[in-house]
Structures are given as structure tokens and as C-alpha cells.
Design goal:
The complex is a heterodimer of chains A (about 110) and B (about 110). By secondary structure, chain A is mainly β. Chain A is built from no helices and 11 strands. In chain A, the strands form 2 sheets. In chain A, strands 2, 4, 5, 9, 10 and 11 form a 6-stranded mixed sheet that branches. A 5-stranded antiparallel sheet of chain A has the order 1-3-8-7-6, with no helix packed on it. The mean pLDDT of chain A is about 95. Chain B has about 110 residues and is mostly beta strands. In chain B, β5 and β6 form a beta hairpin. The model of chain B has no long low-confidence stretch (mean pLDDT about 95). Classes of the chains: A mainly beta (about 110), B mainly beta (about 110). At the A-B interface, β5, β9 and β10 of A face β5 and β10 of B.
Amino acid sequence: RKEVEQDPGPFNVPEGATVAFNCTYSNSASQSFFWYRQDCRKEPKLLMSVYSSGNEDGRFTAQLNRASQYISLLIRDSKLSDSATYLCAVNGGNDYKLSFGAGTTVTVRA
Amino acid sequence: NAGVTQTPKFQVLKTGQSMTLQCAQDMNHNSMYWYRQDPGMGLRLIYYSASEGTTDKGEVPNGYNVSRLNKREFSLRLESAAPSQTSVYFCATGIQPQHFGDGTRLSIL
């Protein structure tokens, strides 16, 4: 089983829609969780950290479900510019290194 | 403030050739990493360096060597390139989160 797994999508949504997707992780001792955004042929860029109580950054909401070992990302009022691949990253318990999912592709259409 | 700088941006090699990918960071982090990214595979860790003078193998180290020249620089060397090493290579620095360079696109024929 991979350490971090994501639904590859693609999620095709109209502008203004809400889209949400999850990322599951296998190490129950993981403590740090992140969402990165990656545009085509570009480097991953940190979108947001994921906190235990859940957190928002504008139209983006991240949640952590420790019992079921997944994190989620919700995008409200989708914009064309939100089209990208979203990678989740999780540390391995006491290890500071991150394991990355293969990414979920989101395409927002006009 | 450049963050993480990788050179070259693109490279085409023939099987058996060698080359070194360079990475430099000005973020004053101790940790540095080399990843490769292949379609459908996500980012896979090749080698990492927790601090100047130390390096450790990651998930896919075979066929690669690294050098942590100083705090700023971490290079990745392919001694005898193989077509299976065709990939996009990213250098990163930092601890939770990590910050990435803009990648080196390497094709091996």
C-alpha cells in the first residue's frame, strides 16, 4: 500500500462550483499535512498547511480526519485559475521527510 | 530572493553519459532534497541531506549520487545515464513545508 494515495481525477467542474477531494495516508503516527498546487510542467507550490481543527484560506478549506486517516481539500466558487494538480504531502510520524501523493487534477471550465 | 535555483532547466543525454544537476538555496535551511517526478508516480525522494556534510538515501537512490557541498548547495549526479532516468527532477529545501526549485527536465536517449 502506498504511504499517500489520491484520486487522480480529473475533476471537471464549471466556474463557480464547489469541488472537494481527499488524500489518504497509511502512517497513523503522521503529524504534519500539507496541500501543494502544481501547474503543468511547473514546480509544486505550497497551497496550505492542514491543521487538526481544520482551516480555511479564502476559498480553500482543508480538513484532517485522523480516525479515517485522510485529509481533504475543498475549493469553493471555483475559478478558471484554480485548474491545476493538487498534491497532498504527509510526514512519516517522527520523520521530518514528506511523502507526496501523485496528485488530483482539477479542471475548471468556463 | 531566488529561493531554490536549479540548473540546467533542460538537458538531453545519451545513454551512458554522465552529468550533474545543480541546486542552490538562499533560504538558510539545513535540509535539502532531490526528487524525481514521473507521470502517475508523484514525487519520489532520491536522496536528502539533513545538514551540511550529511546525505542519506531516499526511496529511489539507485543510479544516483549526491554531494552536499555546503549549506547552500546540493548536487545530484548521474554517473551513467539510463533511459529509465528520464524524468523531471526537483530540488527542495526546508522542513514541513518544503520549498521547491523549478525543476530540471532530463531526457535520456
